[in-house]
Amino acid sequence: MNANRIINMMLRMFMRKAVNKGIDMAANRGKSPAEMTPEERKQAQQAKQTAKKARKLARLARRFGRF
Question: What is the pTM of this model?
């Protein structure tokens, strides 16, 4: 592998982690689970599940977009 491919791979890994952390932060609305009420925790969990489904659907759409 050349250096350009390695740099791109590392950059994609970093960006993927950063985006996922941002989505989780948005789902939690910036609060830690210890600070949340039970209703807020349930809502945050549902938001995370919705985000997970959206990511899965985006992957599927990219896959079908190739054909």
Answer: 0.61
